[in-house]
Design brief:
Layout: H1 2-22, H2 29-50, H3 64-95, H4 103-128, H5 135-150, H6 157-174, H7 179-208
Helix pairs in contact: 1-4, 2-3, 2-7, 4-5, 5-6, 5-7, 6-7
Amino acid sequence: MKPTEHYLNEITEIKKMMEQSSRFLSLSGLSGVLVGIYALIGAFIAYQLIYIPGSLYYREYYSNQVLGEMLLLAAVLLVVSFVTVIWLTTSKVKRKSEKFWSPGTRMLLTNLAIPLVTGGIFMLIFLSREIYSVVAPCCLIFYGLALVNAAKYTRREIFYMGLFEIGLGLLAAVLPGMGLFFWVVGFGLVHIIYGTIMYFRYERKTANK
């Protein structure tokens, strides 16, 4: 039994090393919760700027000042979310005595970035033509595609989250007047639920050890 157990342990270690080299499994669930909260705050501010008070419908006209404020809001949310994810994820990696920058990390970020950058450029083209109703669908659909594309290099939950984001984006395209509502669900509530699941499924056990 001992030689057999020894071989099994070696196989387990080899499998673990191969998995660590090809996949990044240390994404922070808490960062997902915080990103969702940031999104809810951002959506509340955006509602005040672009919606008719007490309605789910966009204003018919936006001043350059409002557009500038919206772009600034989006930039701030993006930077704060990115910093939060990197900070909490690197902290988790250090606690596990692992390396943050690995082949798995590079593949994850590359596969995540390609759809995101493409979607960002695509959305800016429509914004330059003053077609604002596509913003929410584009954000959700391309973000979902990015998650699906990157899922093979991290946790499987990311794949299903991506499919859900794509579905919300398609609904937002069908119901353009409710774009912010779907944005709140996709970037706010879904992130909070995802982060909570990830924390209790993968991080709480480690934290209690």
